[in-house]
Fold this protein.
Amino acid sequence: EVPQPAKSASTIPEVDQPQPPNLQVYPYRYVCAVLFILAALVNSFPTCTLVAASTVAEDIYHQTKATIALCSLADNLMIPFVLFPAFYLLDHVGLKMALNVACVSMCVGSLIRLSINNEFAGYVFGTFVTTIGAIILLSAPIKFVSNWFQLREVQTRSTVGILVNAIVMFALYTSDALGIFMSALFVDDNSNKQDFMNLVVVQTTLAVVVHLLVLAFFARNRQHRLRTNPYYVVTQVSKKPEFPEVGLPAREKLEHIWLFLSASLIRGAVAGLITVLSWIVEPYGFSSRDVGYMIISTSLSGIVGCVLVGLLLKRYRKYKLTSLVCATV
């Protein structure tokens, strides 16, 4: 048998390789990012109105300390009831619809809060309505960034997604400081009902304008909606590997539960302290404006602490030691 000549490289048929989907990065996503950041900046305004001026509001509106504190702790009280429906909206209905619900809630609740001088109960009810939207927005940053920025692209674009996520979280935590700073500008120990009304009107105007912009311009048409954005295309086209379901050992589950409980207790303690701070320092001659500056310094130092802790974790990877030090402090 005569041996056949070997085929050259040019004559070897090429095997078809699966090609990645043709992804398109929409520049409009930066508009969505700006709108989301603006909404995050006004997110905590309703619950910060009376924080620094609790003693003044108590005297002017003839309300009990519990009623005044209820307005400041509304978001913490509503989290157990709103958080899981918020995650359901984000995961099963979509980011755009969840933001629509949040914006409508914030607008309606902010308008109801304008009844502060006529019916204080209406103001309290409106504050609780706004917390529905606030909690949805607080649950949405990861979903927003993953839908619009966390693409399987080159490293520079992935870095953009990380930066946007950091800016969004910074805006959410800065919202408390901005709301309390605004309260300190409008209200002091000599304020009256009109001063509180002016504060609520300014906060309502900012909240309504920002959330109407989000309703109108976030995901302006069909191609920018959740089910056709690039990240969704990638996750649908690429085949996900099947991993066996491995549960955490009982010891690790217990450690996670303790970590969750300790973080919850720390958050609750800080929120409670900030809420009653004006009553604590009043006998020592501090004004409501002084209380506002104290709380602002607390918020800003917390932001600085988060940045420092994040840098230390990235550098040394000592998660347990860092958690123990932070809990001790």
